Amino acid sequence: MKLAIIGVSGMVGASLLKVLEEFNFKFDDFIPVASEKSLGKSVYLFGKEYKIISIEQALEQKPDIAIFSAGKSVSLKWAENFANNSCFVVDNSSAWRMNENIPLIIPEVNISILEKENKIIANPNCSTIQLATVLWPLHLRYKLKRVIISTYQSVTGSGHKGINQLIAERSGQKPEQMAYPHQIDLNCIPQGGEFLENNYTEEEMKLVYETRKILGLDNLKITATVVRVPVFGGHSESVNIELENKFEISEIKDTIEETNGLSLLDNPQKNIYPMPLIAENSNHIFVGRVRRDESCENTVNLWIVADNLRKGAATNAVQIAQYICDNFIE
Predict the structure, then answer these.
(1) Is 126 noted as a catalytic residue in this protein?
(2) Does residue 304 share a domain with residue 323?
(3) Same domain, 52 and 84
(4) Whether this model's pTM surpasses 0.70
């Protein structure tokens, strides 16, 4: 079984290598791919050295699975070439997510819809993954009516460019490149991606459209505000969820605790709740501050935190790849 990572030298690529080791992912040959400036450099997986090659060379080697994490333009140009070469493509970019013929997968939610004929599989946006993984079990038990999300997103979501801007500003230097239109250190920027005609941003509408697609709820009432904050460890979300059916807070907590991939951290009297510092380098989604919205019937407030490079990208992709290995590759 040949496994390729397209974009292995990036931040998500580095996380993919770590997660593959943590999952003890089995393969016969590993094909690391990156841009021209990284060709010939080495990466290490399970203690073995592999030389980075070009995407053209990788295509010739006919991998069975290719995890793409090199951006939308690369995925649009190359994913179909790999898929047409009998390769399963797990794509981390936004290139295919809203294509009606491409499954958008969170393993804890909808992996069962995958079929062997699905050669391109889309990985959702990082913020969508941690949101939808929590919403799904609540929907199954109580039925979702309306969801309001405010995100507090780490600079790691903007790659090295975002991290470098924050580090430079924090040290009193001028960044070589600006990831954001304003200073991020000691600041919050209510913008994720470009603004659209409706004055929402790209990141905000991804949360709306992707969540509806994953949950299979085309008419779900959902709205979002995305904010970039000067932290490293992961993305945080304040989520207000109106449900069709009545609930007890203890039942909500039980549902979270019983869901694979979720960890409940909720003891406010002891100042225990999820934070990016806790989520960093973890594959789990952490949920806390569970409380009834006293202004609206059948409504609960949650605080959801996850490492956007892990479950928000690498971990989700590796879980999908493992499912493909277990079910579709002989």
Answers:
(1) yes
(2) no
(3) yes
(4) yes
